[in-house]
Design goal:
- It holds the Pfam family zf-CCCH_DUS3L.
- The structure is a single chain.
- The chain is α/β, with parallel strands linked by helices.
- It folds into three domains: 20-90 and 97-102 and 530-635, no CATH class; 115-198, no CATH class; 204-507, Aldolase class I (TIM Barrel, Alpha-Beta Barrel).
- The protein has 24 helices and 15 strands.
- α8 runs antiparallel to α13, α21 (530-548) crosses α24 (607-618) and α22 crosses α24.
- It starts with 19 loop residues before the first helix and ends with a strand.
- Residues 1-41, 84-103 and 242-248 have low confidence and may be disordered.
- Bound molecules: flavin mononucleotide (FMN).
- Flavin mononucleotide (FMN) is lined by residues 74, 77-78, 81, 277-280, 282, 302-303, 333, 363, 365, 406, 437, 483-486, 506-509.
- Residues 74, 77-78, 81, 277-280, 282, 302-303, 333, 363, 365, 406, 437, 483-486, 506-509 line the site of flavin mononucleotide (FMN).
Length: 636
């Protein structure tokens, strides 16, 4: 589509079955959509660069706190969501992983129930019912009805987890307990048929058992390959560079470790794939599940730091988890400042994370100060030798799992290094894919991604990669994936058709407009109705409850991460409000109202409205919840 008025033929909104809360809302609060006004005879106003061309009938007067005065600080978003965002703290005493900076906790039960009675309620057959050995002497409550009566009043409706998988892992703590509790027999209800039918499709990979974590924490975990690989690589590097007095003798004493080449591993296929970027905090498992349902077919976990992984930090391992729907098309992303850290983390991930892990990706693009100062993330681009050693080591440690890298144009604007890095990696023959974010570390999100440079890198990778394959059949021509500012189907196809990349990794575009892959696939802009967009939010909530639990803790987690997600979704300006196509997501929108109240609400930049939206699916906010957007938007 070109710069014409939005097509009046945009696909009709799908009919969507909504839950009770939404039906009530739609019935009472949402007026019928305002029909899109016919173009006036004098023709549309000229398009002003940098300003969203919103039709006059949807424009509101500017107000101090309105969206018109907000800039979206994506550097702050990436930085704030980083585990090491606070450089003043020097990395000490930081909480890591998904739960960092959270004050969420499992609410205490008013009545403490005896564990044996709890178990008895969970056991399906009365025959196997455990009994409390302490009998009347037990200090905990034995009467289940007293426990249930003391719980906060159930939320309305049926437990969303139970209704999908036929049982509820949150058990008696579930906030929809009444929907799966048999009060006469004092048992939790299990729908065996549904449970069996959904067992495989609803499972998650990478949930480590306590023993393994314990072994890692106590340094008892046996890394069978890593030590040898590290020793070998140290010798090879010394020997090759002749920096120290490494002799042929010292090499001879050393057992050679097998170095796998990319063609000797599982095949990774990224050509034409709809790829969601690794996204710290927002790219969590429920979000990725939502994206899978909306057309994504390759996803990445949030960046995990190697050291906490090998130290057995549970919250860091949470970042390696994936859903069954991501099987064989999911990459774990790590970063490390030292080769031994990356190698050990890779070995542990390859051994412990299931689900047909498609790749382990090394993040060499992370711009965050603390990561950079530790020699990790984008600092690796300043030390090609170290980067190459890390990739070789990871490749040796990962068995048949391919190793891929994500880089930027370089660390400095004035000195793009991606081409020489790609050259080096291709020469070593162990990198299965190179993703290039077309910005330097220095540049962060200021200025647009440089797609011409991405195109040059793509050309180099293809040419050198092909030459390498001809020279050494153990190598592959690495996939080359472009990244940066892909907000529309036109951006995606332009990147693939005109800049020569095999595919595009989409980050903010997939957060702001989660149905972006549907648009890419159909090569058209889709004017999603507010009810359809609300349905995605409902779906996210249900996935969140399945992942984090339907008890108070799980609901709080789901609500919080939903609000983080909505700190991006609210930026979407519905295309039906625009005078001109194509839409430009970076245009300043002015203050606007939607075609109905729900559409206006979904575009609100007030986080209190995001919390309000969450209440439609997660019930009223309890005492244990507070949310402040981590990346504050600045006033112009
Ligand atoms: C909130 C947020 C979190 C991010 N987290 C990661 C991450 O964990 N790993 C990574 O490689 N890149 C991360 N990035 C960078 C993106 O993956 C991507 O490279 C960048 O946003 C450019 O793509 P875009 O223009 O499509 O947004 C993050 C970006 C944002 C906005």
């Amino acid at each position: 589509m070109d710069s014409a008025n939005p097509s009046p033929n945009s696909p009709p909104s799908k009919k969507i079955k909504l839950n009770d809360a939404l039906v009530n809302l739609t019935a009472t609060e949402v007026p019928a959509p305002v029909p899109v006004a016919a173009p006036v005879a004098s023709g549309p106003r000229p398009r002003q660069p940098g300003v969203a061309p919103i039709k006059p009938e949807y424009l509101l007067p500017n107000e101090p706190n309105s969206r018109a005065n907000v800039v979206f600080d994506d550097d702050a978003a990436e930085q704030a969501s980083s585990k090491d965002g606070d450089s003043k703290n020097n990395g000490k005493n930081k909480k890591r992983g998904q739960n960092k900076n959270r004050r969420l906790h499992q609410g205490r039960d008013t009545v403490s129930l005896c564990e044996f009675i709890k178990l008895a309620a969970e056991v399906a057959t009365p025959k196997a019912t455990p009994t409390c050995p302490y009998g009347a002497g037990c200090k905990y409550e034995h009467d289940l009805s007293v426990y249930v009566a003391a719980k906060p009043v159930d939320l309305d409706g049926v437990c969303p987890v139970f209704s999908v998988i036929g049982w509820c892992p949150s058990g008696l703590k579930c906030r929809w307990l009444g929907s799966h509790f048999d009060s006469i027999n004092q048992k939790l209800v299990i729908n065996d048929t549904k449970r069996a039918a959904t067992k495989d499709i609803s499972s998650e990979n990478g949930r480590l058992n306590g023993q393994v974590l314990n072994d890692l924490q106590r340094k008892k975990y046996v890394f069978e390959k890593s030590d040898e690989i590290v020793k070998y690589l140290d010798k090879v590097i010394d020997f090759n560079q002749e920096k120290r007095q490494a002799t042929k003798d010292s090499m001879a004493q050393h057992v050679e470790v097998p170095i796998y080449f990319a063609a000797e591993k599982k095949r990774l296929d990224l050509r034409g794939k709809y790829i969601v970027s690794p996204l710290t905090t927002v790219g969590n498992l429920p979000y990725r599940r939502l994206m899978r349902t909306l057309g994504a077919n390759h996803t990445y976990g949030e960046m995990a730091l190697s050291l906490p992984l090998i130290q057995g930090q549970k919250s860091e391992w949470a970042l390696t988890r994936s859903h069954a729907e991501e099987n064989n098309a999911f990459g774990v992303q790590i970063t490390a400042g030292k080769h031994w850290q990356a190698i050990k983390a890779t070995e542990a991930i390859s051994d412990l994370v299931g689900g047909g892990l498609a790749e382990i990706n090394l993040n060499c693009g992370c711009p965050i100060d603390l990561v950079y100062r530790a020699g990790a993330g984008s600092a690796l681009m300043d030390n090609a030798g170290k980067l190459a050693r890390i990739v070789r080591g990871m490749s040796a440690a990962s068995g048949d799992i391919p190793i891929t890298v994500k880089i930027r144009t370089g660390t400095k604007d004035s000195n793009p290094t991606a081409i020489s890095l790609a050259n080096r990696l291709i020469n070593d023959g162990q990198t299965a894919a190179i993703t290039l974010h077309g910005r330097s570390r220095q540049q962060r999100y200021s200025k647009s991604a440089d797609w011409n440079y991405i195109g040059e890198v793509a050309k180099t990778v293809k040419e050198l990669g092909q030459a390498k394959v001809e020279e050494d059949s153990r190598a592959v021509r690495p996939w080359v994936v472009g990244n940066g500012d892909c907000y529309t189907w036109e951006d995606w196809h332009n990147a693939v058709d005109n800049h020569g990349v095999d595919s595009v990794m989409v980050a903010r575009g997939a957060l702001i407009k989660p149905w972006i892959f549907e648009e890419i696939d159909s090569k058209q802009y889709i004017d999603k109705s507010a009810t359809e967009r609300l349905e995605y939010i409902k779906q996210y909530c249900n996935f969140g409850l399945e992942h984090w639990g339907s008890d108070e803790y799980g609901i709080n987690q789901t609500r919080r991460f939903l609000c983080e997600f909505m700190s991006f979704t609210h930026r979407y300006v519905p295309i039906g409000l625009l005078e001109y196509m194509p839409p430009k997501m970076n245009d300043r929108p002015g203050n606007w109202k939607g075609r109905n109240e729900l559409e206006t609400l979904l575009g609100s930049n007030d986080y209190k409205d995001w919390v309000k939206i969450s209440e439609m699916f997660l019930g009223p906010v309890g005492d244990g919840f507070d949310f402040k957007p981590k990346h504050k938007s600045n006033a112009f």
